[in-house]
Please model this.
Amino acid sequence: MKRRPLITAGLLAAATPWARAQTPAPAEAAPAYSPADLQHAARLRDAGLADGQAWRLVQQLCNEVGPRPAGSPGDAKAVAWAQQALRGLQLQNVRAEPVPLRVWVRGPASATLVAPVAEPLVMVALGNSVATPETGIEAEVAWYPDFAALVADTSDRARGRIVFIDQKTERSRDGRGYGAAVVARSRGAVEAAKRGALALGIRSIGTDRERIAHTGAMRYEIGLPQIPAFAVSVPDAERLAALQAGGATLRLRVQLQSRSGVEAVSHNVIAEVPGAELPEEIVLLGAHLDSWDLGVGALDDGAGVAIVSAAAGVLQRLAQQTGRRPRRTVRVVLFANEENGFDGALAYGDRYKQQVHQLVSESDFGAGAVYALRSRVQPQALPLFGALAEVLAPLGVAWPEAGRNEGSPGPDAALLMRRHRWPAVQLAQDGTNYFDVHHTVHDTLERIVPSELAQNVACWAATAWLASQSPLRWTPPAA
Model:
């Protein structure tokens, strides 16, 4: 009688693992935000939409500082302005971290059509271009309809000539037209040099029809000659194309006076809303402080500087009003020298590579309204993005590619995402008209619509808050 309970207990003990194995485990609950966190996100959204701080900031940056090529006096003035502006928003741990540079300095430049008729062209030197001899370069033109045609050319047609690439830029909302065309600017001189060309000219990488030229960075390749490179306006490029199509032999004279490798120092400017529970984990909101020298850098990237700074300011102001601080630290990073080398992003990554980054993101696509949310996180975190999308929906923001999980967070942030495998978020802006003025004299304040700027602030404030409050530590998707 006494043994039966023992036998029964033993059988039950032996059977328990089998029974557990046969019983389906309860499904793990999807991660979710608390109602209070979602309510606060909506409050931040609405506060950002009503906030005029971004418009005031970009006005100050453009009117009081102006153009700010990396390493220039304008850049130094921008660094000082940014620290003052971020302190004015009551952000904490404001600092400027030095970034050594070797910069390119623009000099006088001109291009003239010599034959079949004589006329000046509207042009601009490309960033990093070497100078021509003091007397310039005059030569016949080897004309190509696009970059692919140059790459495919195995003849000697380019040798001893000025290569001209007539690469067109298609207008698109998401910038893919620019992405397809910009290789003509970035790698055109490399391919032309391989074929013995004396210089490179390109159709401006832009979507406008105005007689203005677009600058931008190009690069060389070790072991190949470094040849001068320039861009002409779209109407000038079409003039050359029409003459070429008519059978004319084109001849150009080009003079560029620029300097490369000038030693300088810039700074990444950083400020924070410290986290209340996980202050060592970072939600990074980025933009770049430098600009090209032709306009005042209102869209590229004064708007981005103003957007992420104002969004952090909204978080800080509501934290002071409500006592609700983010769990993780929200860090604004205004990067140095995005335009011509990504030195600021590289320096930031080297300095903070051991720190946990919950998110890297960047506003660097002008001031058009945000229309889409795109993620780049582990699949387990995607339900949280569904909740974020619901918060952003009243602003006209969709989450159209939830399953793709292939967001691109902006140039500096994308570099950090790839090098350090940090998770990322993209708030995709409407860039339909962005490349009309990109890298030109027309990158000025009147191109910004203040209400669209405020919509961006609302999106960034809500996104930063929910990234900081996530019950999961975000990681990148599997490679």
About this structure: The CA atoms of residues 94 and 271 lie 4 Å apart. The domain at 35-102+262-469 is CATH 3.40.630.10 (Aminopeptidase). The chain has two domains: 35-102+262-469, 107-257. The first helix runs from residue 3 to 22.
